[in-house]
Amino acid sequence: MLANPLRRDTVTVIDRVKTGEDDRGHDVYEDVEREVPHCNMQPVTSTEANDNRTQVVTRWRLAGPPAMGLTALSRVRFRGVLYEVDGEPGAYGSFAGVLDHTEAFLKVVSG
Fold first, then answer.
1. CB neighbours of residue 43 within 10 Å
2. CA of 93: how far to CAs of 1, 8, 38, 89, 106, in Å?
C-alpha cells in the first residue's frame, strides 16, 4: 500500500460482540475495542439547538483502510471523544486499489 500523508490518524473502533446467552436465553454482549491505524478524521459540521437547554451535534468524516470492519453499530473513539457511526459506512474501490478505503460519517451529541 502506498503511504498516504492524509492517513495519519489512529482511531479505536468499538464493536458490540455477542458473547453468549444469560440463564433466561437473552443475548449477552460485550464491547470489544481495536485500534485501526491509517485513518483520516475531518470535522464536517456542528449545529446547536437552544430549546430550554443547549444541545450540540457535531459530525466528522472518517476515511480508513478498506477492510476495517466498520458497521453502523460500531462506535469510534478519537482523541478521547466517543462517536456514533451515522448511517451505513461505505466501501470504496479504485483503479488498481490505490485509493480503496472505508468512509463513514460520525456524530457526537452533547447537552
1. 9
2. 14, 20, 16, 13, 21
